[in-house]
Structure formats: C-alpha cells, structure tokens
Amino acid sequence: KIMILDFRILNCDRNDENILLIKKNKKKTKNNEVYYKLIPIDHALSFPSCLEIGDFDICWMSWSQAEKPFTEEEKEYIESIDIIEDMKNLNKYIFLRPDCWKYFRISNTVLKVCTKYNLTPFEIGSLLYHSDYDNKTPSKIKLVVERTEQFTSHFKIGRRMRLFSSGSEKEENEEKKSKNKEKEHKRRQNSFFREDREHRTSLLESSTSVPKDGFDKDENDEYAMLAPNKKKHKKRKSSSLDQEEFDSPYNQLYFQNFIMFLEELIKAEYPEKYELEDNKQPEFELQIEEKNAE
C-alpha cells in the first residue's frame, strides 16, 4: 500500500524515518511473535513539477517485498483508479501548478499500464526513478515523456488545440476557447497569490494584541508569539485549473501517445511479460470459441 501511495503522489522522499512502526498485536502469541503495522508519514515532498527522483531516495526499493507482484486485491484497486476524477476532486482542495498535475497523471498512468503487464513495484520503480547520484542520467520514463512532448508539440505550435479538419469553424472556436482558458488560468493564478498575500497581511494588521512591530506589548517577553486572529477571513480559492482542461483534446492526444511509447518501453525491457499479456484472450472470446466448437 505504501508503494502504491508513493507511485500515485510521486513521493520524492520515502526514507526509513518517514515510516512509523506500531505493534499490531497487543496480546502475546504462542510463539511470542510480534507483528508490526507500517504507517507512512511526512509527505511534504510530493506532487513534484518534474521527474527527478532517485531510487536511493525510496527506501522500499531495496526491500524483498518490492520484487513480489501485486496481489489480486491491489490489482483491482489500481484498475479501478479514475485519474481524471481524482484530479477533479483534488483540484477542489489543493492548489497545484499545471506541471504538477501533468506528472501526477503520468505517474498514475505508469502505475496502471505497468500493473496491466504484471510488473512488480521494483520493476516499475526502475523505470520511474533514476539511479544516478549526480542526476545526469535521466530515468527511462523521463525519456518517454520527452519523446511524447516532441511528438505532440507540433499540435501546440501556432495552432493550439486544432485537432480537427482544417478550415472548419470548429477549429477557430477551439482555438479561441484555448486562448481564453490560458488567460483565465493566468488571471486565477495571479489572483490566488494576491489573495494569499492579502491574507497574510490581514493576519498581522487585524490582531488586537499585536502592535505594528509584530510583538506583544510586554517588553520583557522579547520572543512572544503572534496572537491568533479572531476574525473570520475569506476562504482562498484553491482550484488551479478548469475542470474541462484536465481532459482536453490536446491532453487526450498527449496521453494516447504516452501510453503507446510506454508500452514500447515495456516491450523492450520486459519482452516476456509483454508477450504474455498481449497473447491473452478475453473470457467472452473463449466462451464463443467453445460454443462454436460444440
């Protein structure tokens, strides 16, 4: 579960100190065995805007459990992940830059596609994380991202969002909408930082027990803490992108190409697992063949 969590949020710092050990069994067993429960903590370095994570920053990459495949229950959970829906729900509560959203979707897509081909957490991590301490050699997934951006970039230059037949009115409308979305996104981003700045200044100005210099009136207490503000402040807007922008035509095309290049990478790195999954037939096709044979 910790491995799945780290893949989903792209945790950049899962060291041994970021996992708590708690005794699971309070009563003594016959063989005096002690069972522990692992609780992950400290996820401050999550949702990054780039893919610069080293496998030496992830402690479970050296665990024996990482080389075992996911259980059926874990596979069902991963298959049921709706990335777009999760992004829309998170967008209501946290503010993330567009690049952070992009890599969140990339990491979840990698998890879903690699699980489809029965890759272990260690094999997924070896594709997603780099092993160079100097950070000069990029990870294999980062190379896939760069290839996808080069392949899809010509749809963005000059004629953004024009994915339909040339010369149609629909193209012009899509182009206007995309420009308006960019302007609206910049406006909302600037307003967020402005509201955040106003919110911080109001905390200092509106506090009754704090003078202008920021300390209490008691001269003996030089390091007095700021008094809490009793007034109710306006809630800040945390949404960073429009709901429609998550699943825009350009993003759909981008991730279609990304999945295509990712499957090529899996085929090159793990040909046995790729061929095994590729040769599988759906159950309904097998049932049809059995009926025809009868």
Proportion of strand residues = under 5%
Low-confidence stretches: 158-168, 208-239, 281-288
Multimeric organization: single chain
Strand arrangement across the biggest beta sheet: 1-2
The ordered string of helix (H) and strand (E) elements is: HEEHHHHHHHHH
Helix proportion range: 40-55%
Number of helices: 10
- Based on helices, strands and strand pairing, what is the structural class? mainly alpha
Shape: globular
Overall mean pLDDT stands at 76
* Largest sheet composition: 2 strands, antiparallel
Head-to-tail CA distance between termini: 45 Å
How many strand segments?
Answer: 2
Q: What is the C-alpha radius of gyration, as a whole number of Å?
A: 25 Å
Describe this structure in words.
With 294 residues, this protein is mainly alpha-helical. Helices cover 48% and strands 3% of the residues. The protein contains 10 helices and 2 strands. Helix 4 crosses helix 8 (249-269). The longest helix is centred in the middle third of the chain and has 37 residues, at 169-205. The protein is globular and about 75 Å long. The protein starts with a helix and ends with a helix.
Short description:
48% of the residues lie in helices and 3% in strands. The protein has helices at residues 2-9, 72-79, 83-91, 98-116, 121-128, 140-152, 169-205, 249-269, 271-278, 283-293, and strands spanning 19-23, 36-40.
